[in-house]
Backbone:
């Protein structure tokens, strides 16, 4: 009887701690017990998520009606952090990092993309995927196609750890059938 109780307790603990983390990787809720689930619904890796427009569109659908720019940041384990534009602890972190890198306080530190880069730097994350609901994509590029120095596209590469990549999906890339915007940490 004791062995039976021990087996049941171990099975319950495994269910509580192992199954949910597997079934919610990259914010996918397909339970492993569902034999007929479409394997294409959930990416198998971060690289796959960075290149899976359908997956990004499904994530976007969950945040598209938010009043402010909102982002879902996914790390290599498929874990998720929800970010919102505006002043908060993550914008303070971004300001702190920008200052440590010799830059001034910037309004762009309140943007989701910059907050994501700051989190990546702080936590030592080298690759991540961000899905944002900002309709026109990552801010801003001049008419000549070059990033403005104090825009997300200009600041994020300076915040990211050297050699790291933040892949960003927005409604713009999803709608136009493109791929995610890859922002890479610059060599210092």
Residues:
């Amino acid at each position: 009887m004791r062995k039976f109780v021990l087996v049941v307790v171990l099975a319950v603990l495994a269910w509580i701690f192992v199954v949910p983390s597997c079934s919610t990787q990259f914010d996918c809720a397909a339970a492993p017990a569902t034999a007929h689930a479409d394997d294409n619904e959930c990416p198998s890796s971060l690289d796959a998520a960075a290149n899976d427009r359908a997956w990004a569109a499904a994530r976007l659908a969950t945040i598209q009606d938010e009043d402010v720019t909102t982002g879902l940041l996914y790390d290599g384990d498929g874990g998720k952090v929800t970010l919102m534009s505006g002043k908060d602890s993550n914008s303070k972190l971004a300001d702190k990092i920008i200052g440590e890198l010799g830059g001034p306080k910037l309004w762009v530190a309140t943007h989701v993309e910059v907050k994501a880069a700051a989190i990546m730097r702080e936590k030592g994350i080298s690759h991540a995927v961000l899905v944002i609901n900002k309709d026109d994509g990552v801010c801003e590029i001049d008419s000549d196609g070059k990033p403005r120095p104090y825009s997300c596209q200009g600041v994020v590469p300076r915040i990211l750890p050297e050699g790291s990549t933040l892949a960003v999906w927005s409604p713009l890339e999803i709608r136009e059938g493109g791929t995610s915007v890859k922002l890479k940490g610059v060599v210092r």
